[in-house]
Inverse folding.
């Protein structure tokens, strides 16, 4: 463990406009909006706010670009309210603060995102002052949804890869999260960052797209094969895959650690909009504290389970001990085959 402490998270800062609908409509059909609310969205925003609500006990700081508008002001106020250091934030009038319209189906809790890139499309390497940070972990998310940082330049590099290289040279643990985006050459941009990452977090859809698989794998063996292909591209410590059913940690020894998800009744699930980021918060907390992989994964699925109890990303997240107790009380699903 180094003398560094805390988490510095940058990338997509988003306001989620969550709408609960009665059913997913066919093309040209109508769905009724049952309820609506606004909340935090985007990898770094969700991660840091969840860690704050988990009472993590270490410093939290954000880097981002927001608009000079109501949504941007809301993000800055929310950071202050949760003691997230926002000195790394920048504001611009060139674009609106990024937002997502999140359609959550009432009977299943499943969600679909309609996203406006806004200011996140303008976020560049010049907005990051890594040398001013004493954090232990540098997290960037979401790769695949940061236009300037993802763009492959004429010299064959990306600004994201440069950031991870700089962070690693400074002694920070580097972590990245992906997004289920259908835009651009997904693998080409992300592969350039892999040799500079300690941890890569992604779901089964993103993993399939990264390795060029036609369909996402759902079983442990196939996911492990795909994760090992990503490790071979240079990820140093672990590829961590999260699914609704379980989470999988594959390290450089090519051995798998599996943690089933929490056994929750359908009545408890109000929405899954921030479940992946809640899992990431639990995982990052464990990594920061030097926990074993199994313990990191267990807290990850427990924080994810806690988040499912509300339609927004973070409203139902509680102190980490409470999340862990919730998962252990409800129990875990059967281990996957």
């Amino acid at each position: 463990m180094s003398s560094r402490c805390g988490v510095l998270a940058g990338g997509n800062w988003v306001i989620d406009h969550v709408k609960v609908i009665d059913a997913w409509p066919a093309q040209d059909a109508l769905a009724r909006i049952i309820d609506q609310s606004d909340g935090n969205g985007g990898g770094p925003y969700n991660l840091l706010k969840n860690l704050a609500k988990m009472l993590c006990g270490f410093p939290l700081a954000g880097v981002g670009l927001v608009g000079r508008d109501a949504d941007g002001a809301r993000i800055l106020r929310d950071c202050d309210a949760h003691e997230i250091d926002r000195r790394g934030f920048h504001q611009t009038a060139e674009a609106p603060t990024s937002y997502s319209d999140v359609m959550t189906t009432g009977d299943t809790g499943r969600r679909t995102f309609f996203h406006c890139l806004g200011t996140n499309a303008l976020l560049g390497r010049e907005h990051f002052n890594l040398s001013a940070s004493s954090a232990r972990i540098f997290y960037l998310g979401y790769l695949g949804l940061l236009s300037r940082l993802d763009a492959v330049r004429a010299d064959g590099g990306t600004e994201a890869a440069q950031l991870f290289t700089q962070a690693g040279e400074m002694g920070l643990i580097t972590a990245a999260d992906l997004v289920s985006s259908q835009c651009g050459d997904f693998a080409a941009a992300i592969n350039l960052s892999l040799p500079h990452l300690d941890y890569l977090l992604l779901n089964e859809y993103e993993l399939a797209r990264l390795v060029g698989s036609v369909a996402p794998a759902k079983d442990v063996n196939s996911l492990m094969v795909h994760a090992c292909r990503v490790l071979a591209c240079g990820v140093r410590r672990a590829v961590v895959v999260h699914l609704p059913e379980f989470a999988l940690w594959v390290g450089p020894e090519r051995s798998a650690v599996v943690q089933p998800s929490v056994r929750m009744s359908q009545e408890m699930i109000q929405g899954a909009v921030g479940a992946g980021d809640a899992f990431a918060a639990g995982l990052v907390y464990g990594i920061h504290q030097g926990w074993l992989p199994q313990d990191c994964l267990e807290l990850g699925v427990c924080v994810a389970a806690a988040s499912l109890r509300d339609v927004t990303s973070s409203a139902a997240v509680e102190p980490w001990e409470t999340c862990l107790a919730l998962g252990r009380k409800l129990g875990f699903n059967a281990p996957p085959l």
Remarks:
- DSSP finds ten helices and 13 strands in the chain.
